Amino acid sequence: MTNLFFTVVNMSIAAGFTALVVIAARLALRRAPAVLSYLLWIAVAVRLVIPVRLASPLSIMRPIEPLAAEDSGFMTFVSPELKTTAMDAGMRGIERMAETMMPAAKVPGVDMLDMLIRLGGIIWIIGVIVLLARSAVNYWNVRNSIRTAVRIRDHIYESDRIDTPFVFGLLKPKIYVPTGLSEQELTYVLLHEQTHIDRRDYVIKPLAYIMVIIHWFNPLIWLSYALMSKDMEMSCDEKVLDKTGGRHKRPYAAALLSCAVRSSGLRAGSSPAFGENQVKARIRNILAYRKPSARVIAGYMLAIAVLIAACSTNPKMVQPVPHTDQQTFYSGYNLTELMNNKTLYVGHAGKVGGLIHGMPEPEGLDWNGIELQTTEPPYGVIIRYQMNAAADQAETGDAAYETFCRNAVLLFSLIDNVDRISLSIGDQTSPDGSASYSMTVTREQAEAWLGGDVRPYSADASGLQRLIDQVNRLSFDFSQS
């Protein structure tokens, strides 16, 4: 479920950015026919529904920097690992605030981010279920209200239990009108609702609302749905005016106002309705509408097609240059592995092990596992080594401790909440094989050696290189215990 949640989040971010572009384009097209603005929402729908798409030099996504590679076809802004510096900094701030307010309740080495991600996924699913249930109840209520409707002719029904005309039904859509409409009002109402049927708006609107339900956490998607509904109604009004030759603006606007006065409106996600919303804006648009020439329409359509293509495609990502050994490794440290395993919590055993694997191994020693101390502060890591049979104890000791101290400083930079790093060496060359040697470096000692907090160095690979250069210049005077 976590991967699905992050897929939806990334699609929603891309759709939100596209929605901002469409909203800006609507402002530029405010004097153009509303059907052009209505068509623009296709780009947002594509972003909300299709996770993978083609790359294009026209893409409006070029100014932003996703984490995705071109060959994936999927734009990633947030990954399940949440490796971005901003997110790391935010979590550090939250953790430190919690420690200040409730020192006794300090979070142990458990990965809080993982818990928050899982909680976010659960909340998202609950929101989807609640909104789907609400829509089902609304659908059932509307269906009950038209159960006693009387057929006037063909697919047109009249009911005294409704107060606004609307289209209802997906497979066999019908027009329902309230009782008491004048002959003139009924004529315009039927023209409007039949236009919705001809354009399949009665299918488009519920499908659009399902997209809103899936992306309910994004306010830009709710705004997009409201503006799309407005554009749907306005473009439908304009289509009716085109059918009547534009000679019935005032009576058509009067019919719309009359239905709006008696209507309480339908709920979100319902079928298109004559007097549903934005009545003032729609009447103003009706009275000001002038059908543009075919040449102007052709120009508009070309611009809209280009804009939809730009909003619906991904940028051509610049392929990263493959890392050579010199680029990946620096002074014996695997920078790629270190940056990939950077973590906020010492309790993440896989990442801690990956960090140690990316560091030089002390000479004469064989790695023998790690032990994480996460029950209570100070949180620590014990790195266990075994002195190999070929090693000379006198020659191995000083060099091993120097390497360990350098590695410990880097671990304090890459593991945010670790307090101490310990070295434990077992000597299999001793008569009984049980002799051991140990030492511990604390975060305070590492910061004293470097003159301050070492965590900022791990913000990027270049910072880590600077830290490696500094520790390589240090002379450690550290007595083994």
TrEMBL record:
Coiled coil: none annotated. Residues 338-435 form the DUF4825 domain. It holds the Pfam family DUF4825. Residues 7-286 form the Peptidase M56 domain. Keywords: Membrane, Transmembrane, Transmembrane helix. The chain crosses the membrane at residues 7-29, 35-55, 116-137, 207-228. InterPro entries: Beta-lactam_resp_regulator, DUF4825, Peptidase_M56. PANTHER family: POSSIBLE SENSOR-TRANSDUCER PROTEIN BLAR, SLR0241 PROTEIN. This is Peptidase, M56 family. It comes from Thermobacillus xylanilyticus.
